[in-house]
Design brief:
Layout: H1 2-11, H2 17-48, H3 67-89
Length: about 100
């Protein structure tokens, strides 16, 4: 009986606001349930380790740091520090264009 009533309400889509809102609510609930089930599946896959392949991961940590790149980066920041300090001591003078 209730199913027939629901089907009857769905036939009235566009004619009555109740049927329109019932359709919107029903579709939203179905989408939410599908998303929750999918997210639970992804969550359990990630926690179980089934989703990612760990066989390609290397455990050797010998060549993880490029010391040459780190040294050049630190030198660049030292140069920036010197430039900043010199700009603070001797700020550039700009002429006022309104005068």
């Amino acid at each position: 009986m209730k199913i027939q009533l629901i089907v009857k309400r769905f036939r009235m889509i566009g004619k009555e606001a109740y049927g329109d809102w019932l359709l919107v609510l029903s579709v939203s609930i179905v989408i939410c349930v599908v998303l929750v089930v999918y997210n639970v599946y992804i969550y359990t896959s990630v926690n179980g380790g089934d989703l990612f392949d760990d066989s390609l991961r290397t455990t050797s940590g010998l060549n993880t740091l490029d010391r040459k790149a780190i040294k050049s980066t630190l030198e660049m920041f030292d140069i920036k520090k010197v430039n900043f300090e010199s700009m603070q001591k001797n700020p550039p003078h700009f002429d006022d264009p309104t005068k």
